[in-house]
Design brief:
single chain, alpha+beta, Double Stranded RNA Binding Domain, Arc Repressor Mutant, subunit A, 2 domains, 4-stranded antiparallel beta sheet, two-stranded parallel ribbon, 6 strands, 14% strand, DNA binding, MethylDNA_cys_MeTrfase_DNAb, MethylG_MeTrfase_N
Length: 188
């Protein structure tokens, strides 16, 4: 349960489940904005047969931020070239409300690391204004409440190794590969 800023009254949180090419993605939010995106834990890569993106639970009570989020995720998986033209949903997670290095890192990642790009923890620390904070960047990635939209999967180790990911190693590799393939398609 997330408290809103005005007087701490709890939000009326709504939930929606999006069936995606990587499995069921759980999204929660209120009228004000998104609270959290929960990715499926994957032990096997999806076969790719499931290429559509449909809301399978909660469609009847979607708030505007949830509608924007599902539209954005659907575009990300099915028509990535269009994500830049879609509005990003408002965020309403406490971590993204208060001023902190974590918030700075997440906003920097969202704004500066584009589709199909990857950045090291150290490079992201530099971009966020503290070149010695690569480990803190790792902590910020672990606490990211809105994966895929705030693309923490694009942050890799300096060695080129993908590193850890909340959705698991396979999902991170799948997302990076998806973006690379889509970017190559657009370049042709």
């Amino acid at each position: 349960q997330v408290n809103s800023k005005q007087g701490g009254s709890p939000c009326k949180e709504k939930h929606v489940v999006l069936l995606s090419p990587v499995g069921k993605i759980e999204i929660s939010g209120c009228e004000t904005g998104l609270h959290e995106i929960k990715l499926p834990k994957m032990s096997v890569l999806p076969s790719g047969a499931e290429s559509s993106c449909e809301v399978c639970e909660g469609a009847e009570e979607m708030t505007e931020p949830l509608q924007q989020c599902t539209a954005w995720l659907r575009a990300y998986f099915c028509e990535p070239a269009t994500t830049g033209t879609l509005p990003l949903p408002a965020f309403h997670h406490p971590l993204l409300q208060r001023d902190s290095f974590t918030r700075q890192v997440l906003w920097t990642l969202l704004n500066d690391v584009k589709f199909g790009e990857a950045v090291s923890y150290k490079q992201l620390a530099d971009l966020a204004g503290n070149s010695r904070a690569a480990r803190a960047v790792g902590g910020a990635m672990r606490s990211n409440p809105l994966p895929i939209i705030i693309p923490c999967h694009r942050v890799i180790r300096s060695s080129g190794d993908t590193g850890h990911y909340g959705g698991g190693h396979l999902l991170k590799e799948w997302l990076l590969c998806h973006e690379k393939q889509q970017k190559e398609k657009l370049a042709r």
